[in-house]
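Good morning N.,

You mentioned wanting to compare the apo and holo forms, so I went ahead and generated the holo version with uridine-5'-diphosphate. This is what I fed in:
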Amino acid sequence: MSKKRILITGGAGFLGSHLCEHFLFKGYRVVAMDNLITGDIRNIEHLFPNPDFEFYHHDVSKFVHVAGPLDYILHFASPASPIDYLKIPIQTLKVGSLGTHNLLGLALAKRARILVASTSEIYGDPLVHPQSESYWGNVNPIGPRGVYDEAKRFQEAMTMAYNRYHKLETRIVRIFNTYGPRMRLNDGRALPAFIGQALRGEPLTVFGDGSQTRSFCYVSDLVEGIYRLLLSDFDQPVNLGNPSEITIKEFAEEILRLTGSDSPIEYKSLPVDDPKQRKPDISLAKKILDWEPKVDRSQGLANTYAYFKALGPQELRERQ
Ligand code: UDP
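and this is what came out, ligand included:
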C-alpha cells in the first residue's frame, strides 16, 4: 500500500517540527511548509536527508499550491507567543484567518482531512475553571492579545463552516501551554525565558505577583494526542493539555531548583489581559481518544533543560 501524505504548516516551528518527526516515524510522507518568521530551519535540518520529507518555504496566508495527492493537512502555522503576536499582529491575524481559509480550500480540492491548531486562548481570561470545551470564553477582541485569540476563534468558525457546508472532514485541537526542546529561547514565554535567564545568570522575570496559574504539557504527550485526534472520527473541538496546575511564581522556583541557579526573582508588570488562571478539563480527550499526559513536569523540565544546555554558548547567543 502506498504511504499516506500529510502537509504540516508551521513545520519548522516548535510543535510543527515534532509533528514532522512523528508522522515520518509512523510511515507517512511529510510535506512541511513554513515562512520561517517564527519557525527555524534548524528544527528540521536533520529531516532533509529523508526521502519521505519535503520542505516548502512559503507563507500560507497567500494562495497555497501543493502538487500531488494529500491525505491529511495539519495547520500549525502561526506566531504563538504573546511577544510574537504583539510584534507581528497583522501576520498573526492573517495566518489564522486567510491562511486557514487557503488550507481549508486546499483540503477540499484534495479531499484531505484537515486538523487545525486552536488554542486555550480562545477561552480568554476564563471565568470558568477548569476550562471545558463547552465554555465559550471571555476574550477582549480589541486588546493586544485579541489578534491571536480572535484569529483562532475565526479559524474555528471557518473550519466548522467547511465541515457543515462542504462536508469536509475537519478536526480542531485546543492546545494548552506546551513546552519542550526546540522552543525558541527568545519567544518570551515563561519557560524559555526562565531557562535562558537562569543559564545566563540573570534575574528571572516574573510578571505581576506570580499568582496567575498555567498548566504545562510536555510536547511528546501533546503530539500523541494530536495524532489520535487526527485519526479519530470526532469533529468537535478537543482540549489537549496537562491539567497539573501551578502558579508562575512556583514555576520560576522550580526552574531555579532544576538549574541550580542562584538568580533572584524580579517582579515586572503584568501584560495586558494576561489570563489569571488556566487549566484544561481533559475529560473529553480521555473519553474520545483514550488519551492523557504521561510525562510529569519534573521529567519534562529535565529533558527541556538538557536540550537548552546542550546547545552550547554560541547557539544560545544566536537563538537570543
Ligand atoms: N510570564 C512571566 N515571565 C516571563 C514570561 C511570562 O511571568 O518572562 C508569565 C506570563 O505573564 C503568563 C505566564 O507566565 O502569566 C505564561 O506566559 P506565557 O507567555 O508562557 O504563555 P501564555 O499562557 O500567557 O500564553
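The two ends are 45 Å apart (CA to CA).

Happy to go through it together on a call whenever suits you.

Best,
F.
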